[in-house]
Design brief:
single chain; alpha/beta; three-stranded mixed beta sheet; 8 strands
Length: 133
């Protein structure tokens, strides 16, 4: 009987957690490993500051650029060697972590890409889904 009650408590607790979770979060972590974004899709709420932690576990530098198709086209042909002042454009040195805070005004999907030579073609692309908060 004790085992049955324990299982019931675990099941009810799991349902409660499932009912409360699963939505967009005001913080996210995106890890970079083997020249790839580990988290290929991240969901964040619109209209609130979102803290994004970028962890580069590679022995080489990467960048994290999030934005519209126009933003990415500019970076594909641009000459900006380092990003550090715009929250949606972050350089992440080898074996380091950077944190950026961004408020996304409108729901929608944005891509995040590393535009260093060959990295986008290698698949260093993800989707940031902005949902109603």
């Amino acid at each position: 009987m004790r085992k049955l009650i324990t299982l019931l408590i675990i099941a009810v607790g799991g349902l409660a957690i499932a009912a409360c979770g699963g939505g967009a979060s005001d913080h996210a972590t995106i890890e970079i490993h083997y020249s790839s974004f580990v988290q290929k899709e991240v969901e964040v709420p619109a209209g609130v500051p979102v803290s994004i932690t970028l962890k580069n576990e590679d022995p080489i530098e990467h960048e994290w650029i999030v934005g519209t198709a126009e933003v990415h086209e500019r970076h594909r042909t641009g000459t900006e060697p380092f990003h550090g002042t715009i929250p949606t454009e972050v350089t992440v040195p080898a074996f380091q972590t950077r944190v950026t805070t961004i408020t996304f005004d409108h729901p929608g999907d944005l891509q995040y890409i590393c535009h260093l030579p060959g990295h986008e073609q290698y698949g260093m692309v993800g989707t940031l889904r902005v949902v109603e908060g």
